[in-house]
Amino acid sequence: MSNSIATRLILALCICTGTIISLGMALDYRVSRTELLENLRLESANTIQKSITDLENLFDGAEDGTRFLAKILQQQDFTEAQLQSLLRDIVDSNGDIYGAAIAINPDTVTSERGYAPYYYRRNGSIVYADLTEGEDFYWQRSWYSDAVRAAKPIWVEPYFDLEGGQALMTTFSAPVYRLDEEGNRSLFGVVTGDITLDELNHYVSNMKVGQSGYGFLLSGQGTILSTRDQTLRMRSYEEVITTDTQYWREILVGGLEGSSLVRTIDCPHIDGSCTVRMGSLDPVGWPVGVVYSQDEVLEPLYEYQLKMLATGIATLMLMSIAIYSITRRVTAPLTALAAASDSIALGDLSTSFPPAKYNDEIGRLVTSFSSMQRDLKVYIADLEDATASRSRLEGELAAAREIQMSMLPQGGEAQETCETYSLWAKVRPAKSVGGDLYTYYERHGELFVAVGDVSDKGVPAALFMAKAISLMQQLQEDFSEPNTGMAKLNDLLEQGNENCMFLTLFFGVLNLQTGTLRFASGGHTPPTLLQAGRATTLEQKSGPALGLATEQTFPINTVQLPAGSRLAIYTDGIDEAFDSEAQMFGTQRINAQIEKDVDQATASAGMSLFQAVDAFAGPTPQSDDITLLLLDWSAATLHAHEFAQQHALHLGPKLVTRANLWLEHVLEQAGVSPDVIMELTLVLEEMVTNVGKYSGLDQTSELQVLVAGNSAEISLEIQDQGSPFDPLSEARRAELGQDIDHAQVGGLGVHLITQLTQQQDYRREEGKNILRVIKQLDT
Amino acid sequence: MELKTSVSIDEEQSVARLGLKGALNTDTAPEFEKRLQDVLSKGNSLTVLDMKELDYISSAGLRVIFKAAKQAKNAGNRLAAANRKPHIDKVFEILKALPDMAVFADDDELDAYLDAMQSQVKGDG
Question: What pTM was computed for the model?
Answer without folding.
Answer: 0.41
